[in-house]
Amino acid sequence: MNIQNYLIVMTGQMFVNLPVKDLDRSTEFFTKLGFEFNPQLSDEKGSCIIVNKENFVMLLTESFFRIFTAKHICDSKNCTGVAVSISTESREKVDELVNKAIEAGGFEAAEPQDHEWMYGRSFEDPDGHIWAIFHMDESTVSEE
């Protein structure tokens, strides 16, 4: 597998927007996981999680999220519309982050996946959104 074939290079930042039922509860949950927030992009309508300098997750109150869509907002505890995936620098970091999520009130979403070259686990946040955390050892992936 040539990993470069799967990469799309974009020059801008990425913001994933997720509706939440209780903004304070969700912000507290992700704070317990060790995430930091951008105060300039956070207020009573939303909290901006800093994933890294180019990627962010906006936790938006359902009422504010509704201004972006005319569609029904699904209950993420009963259906899935998106899974947010974040890579980490090690297998240990995968376990550390998912364990923190469980301790903070989240739930393990699936059995751990170990493919030798890639290891991952996932959790559900308090609103039922799925977060897949993984480590990929790119040194074992063929460049062909």
Radius of gyration, CA atoms, in whole angstroms: 16 Å
Describe the global form: globular
Share of helix among residues?
10-25%
Number of domains: 1
**CATH architecture identity:** Roll
Low-confidence stretches: none
Give me the oligomer status.
Answer: single chain
The CATH topology, please? 2,3-Dihydroxybiphenyl 1,2-Dioxygenase, domain 1
Can you write the helix and strand succession as a string?
EHEEEHEHEEEE
The end-to-end span amounts to 6 Å
Q: Provide mean pLDDT, rounded.
A: 90
Observed structural traits:
single chain; 32% strand; 4-stranded mixed sheet; 2,3-Dihydroxybiphenyl 1,2-Dioxygenase, domain 1; alpha+beta; 3 helices; 144 residues; 5-stranded mixed sheet; 19% helix
